[in-house]
Amino acid sequence: MYSIRRKLSIIILVCSILAALLTAIFVNITISNKFSEYMVNTQNKRNDRIVQYFQEVYKRDKKWTATSGSEMKHEAYMSNYCITLLDSNKKLVWMMDPNDIKEKEHFKSLDGKNGVFTTNSFQIKYNGDVVGYVQIGQYSSILLSADDVNFKLSINKGIIASIFLSLLIVIIISLYISKQFSVPIRDVSNVSVKLSNGDYNSRTNIDTDILEIEKLKISINTLGEKLNHQDLLRKRLVSDISHEIRTPLNILQNNLEAMIDGIFPVNTEQLIGLNDEVIRFGKLLNNLNTLKEFEAETISINKEKILLDELLSAVCDDFSIALKEKNIELIYNIRPDKDYSIIGDVDKLKQVFINLLSNSVKFSNYGGKVWINLTRDKENIIVSIRDTGIGISKEDLPFIFERLYRGDRSRNKIEGSGIGLTIVKDILTLHSASITVESEVGKGSTFTIRFMN
Ligand code: ADP
Question: Exposure pattern of 39-52 as b/e (b: 16+ CB <10 Å)?
């Protein structure tokens, strides 16, 4: 296994070495070709110059002698080629010995093929007639002087130096770039390890300008928050359940003991009181059971056409006594002449409205108001249930749909199990509907359900 930093550095380095080598080879080939072209041109010009020189000599002397143009010998010797002068009948006038130049060190061939002596013959013309031939022979097709060789060497050295320099720069850049990746990823991965070890408070604050890593960082932090929250809920759940079970059990136990000891009389009134506790206990277990079914996804829904306006009216009627008891006014608004039909499970949706309406009544003070609005737009049928109740604090708001969550204000004062809204949300999810809540402490709450059309 490699670390990201090491892996990235190796990849960048290998790519750079390849790129540098390819560039070097390409530059070298191009320069060599151009250089050869240049040298061939120079040599052709030299040949032309030699021919021209002999033409001048003939023009001056009108004949060939053993010394015609012999001044050229020195230059030829120095420049490592041999000249042979022939007359118009190709008879030898004079020649240089190729062995004189064979062992000289300061000339090299461009193509590295030293040793094969080749000659080229050129005509010498005077007034349009061929008056002789000059043969130029050398031990390689193109001759290089020491300066030429040095020039080539220095170019190659330059290429090698630039390869090393660019590799050095690449190493520094690759270390920097890989650090940009590895440091935040390492940090995020450390946090995920801590989360998996149960340290749900662990978070990462590392700065990064890499979008994917930033997203990863945000999601790992969100995951941490959720795990932390779930952990709190789990702990709270255990204490809530034990509290909910312990309270009716204690009451039952105390009262029964008092009856056994003869402190309380065993009469109908006492027994009704005890029965209420048993009923409360039973309700809690029923709610837990319903929740368990939803969470095990074993619940099935019977789909049929439902007219939401009719269903809501029926639910409102069921609440008339409860509303009257707390003197709560119920205002029911329906935009008329619209189709409020949806496909769903009528019993389950009834449960949704009962839960919401019973919360509105439960959390409203005496003389409060509850509004039920039913409208529709192009995409949704919208049901909103608004009350002038105690409201929900900002801290509680994100969690009220969690199972067994009860707002701090209602926890000890108002009876409940913290399951109603979880069931509401689960049923609506089965109907592909959404629910949102807006609330202000002391002013009231509005629950809005959107059924997709
Ligand atoms: P329960 O009502 O049994 O406590 P719910 O799941 O129905 O459980 O509600 C969860 C919590 O949400 C409640 O304890 C309460 O704090 C808050 N809540 C729900 N509806 C309202 C409302 N209409 N007004 C104020 N608070 C509400």
Answer: beeebeebeeebbe
